[in-house]
Amino acid sequence: MAAGRLTFRNINALAPMVRVGTLPMRLLALDYGADVVYCEELIDIKMAQCRRVVNDVLDTVDFVAPDDRVMFRTCGKEKERVVFQMGTADPDRALAVARLVEMDVAAIDVNMGCPKEYSTKGGMGAALLSDPDKIEAILRKLVSGVSVPVTCKIRILPTLEETVALAQRIEKVGVAAIAVHGRFKDERPRHPVHCDYIQAVARAVSVPVIANGGSLDLVKSYEDIEEFRCATGAASVMLARAAMWNASVFRSQGLLPLERVMQEYLKYAIQYDNHAFNTKYCLCQMLRDKVESPLGKQVQAAQTNAEISEALGLQEFYRQTEEQLQTRRDALQSSSLPSSPVVDGGVITMAVKFERREYPPQITPKMVLLEWSRKQRMEQPLYETRPQDRAFQSTVTLDEKKYRSSLWEKSKKFAEQAAAIVCMRVLGVPEGRVGDKDSDLVCKRKRESRKNGRAEEERRKKLHVADDVLQELETSEQRVVMKTGSETSERSAD
Description:
Layout: E1 12-14, H1 23-32, E2 36-38, E3 42-43, H2 44-48, E4 51-55, E5 60-64, E6 70-75, E7 82-87, H3 91-101, E8 107-112, H4 117-120, H5 132-145, E9 150-155, H6 160-173, E10 177-181, H7 195-204, E11 209-212, H8 222-232, E12 236-239, H9 241-245, H10 258-271, H11 276-287, H12 294-301, H13 305-311, H14 315-333, E13 342-344, E14 347-350, H15 365-375, E15 382-388, E16 391-398, E17 401-405, H16 412-427, H17 440-493
Parallel strand pairs: 1-2, 1-12, 2-7, 3-7, 7-8, 8-9, 9-10, 10-11, 11-12, 14-17
Antiparallel strand pairs: 4-5, 5-6, 13-14, 15-16, 16-17
Helix pairs in contact: 1-10, 3-5, 5-6, 6-7, 10-11, 13-14
């Protein structure tokens, strides 16, 4: 850091990697010695729809899509060293996204090097390399429009002269650094990196150049990072696959055993509620050729972070962390939330929690609400539930109005019950709690229970009579058999 502003000279950085560069991997890389970490490429159209949410349970800042997916999650530990990379082909949209996240990141980067279709669609990623005017327009808009440094990451062009010319044009816009992946657009990781191209760019511009693409042949340990820097003449080095395979490559003390690295990664994934499929993907990338080992097969078979924790021997850590997070949720939910109805975005909300012990056996708020709606000749209630951080919140729609508890529940079922309670309390419908005035459903259940009880008593009486008759018949048969046996014995003696 220089005067509170991120510097890109003499740094080792975690490169942006799709599906890998999420919060757990970034924090792990920082622990092992990375100076700067890039998030995975995030598309501007998706990010522009997100809302910024402070997550008090995880102590993070989340950027949440309309479907409640967390597109980008960050925390205070990385705030001064995380670079937000976006995929964009539109200057105005790029600026809107940059302004959305700029207070929570250290810099903004534009992806101009990814050759894969998901990035090049719509003119993003490596597609920008053939449109220098658009590159300049995007970067100029960002440099003048945000308060944090702006950088970009490019691939090399067909000739050295074209590559240098593009880098010089980018420099004039006012970027803080240029990352150069030393491969052509149609080359893949199996192809050797062109250090000479990176070196030519580093000599031609005055801003820091970050060398990228050395993981295949050149960088396998911490000592190799400096050799790659020297070979390219770059100010800094950015690592992708070498860090993905073993993030401890950033350690000046040397590589750590893979299983330990996997465990430390998983701890962050658990602490920050990382999606299990993403956690599993990253662990499988670390395993590489060992993915078919017993450990690899166990990780692949896992469907939840709890099952992944079991594979890596972190069951107790998982249990304790989940308890801590739940305690935090409960404390936050119990803090001065309004108990009277509040309209939130067209949804009527109350701070209501479902407590099973408050209701008679085999009676639930959902059942009571359903029975009431049938009696009123309404369409049956419809429930829509969303998850977040292993908690659930449900909205019930009845008679074209929506009801929801402002509290989060531990399961989908409990969340739906809480929504049903809110609906009934707002409508003034008896919800069937123990000690409350009986609802129609509770009365019906009691009548059925009494009716069933009487029927059961009659059945038992009939069975008792039948047992007496059967016992009498068996006694009579025994007498006949004994008499017949006695007569036969007498004849045999004769």
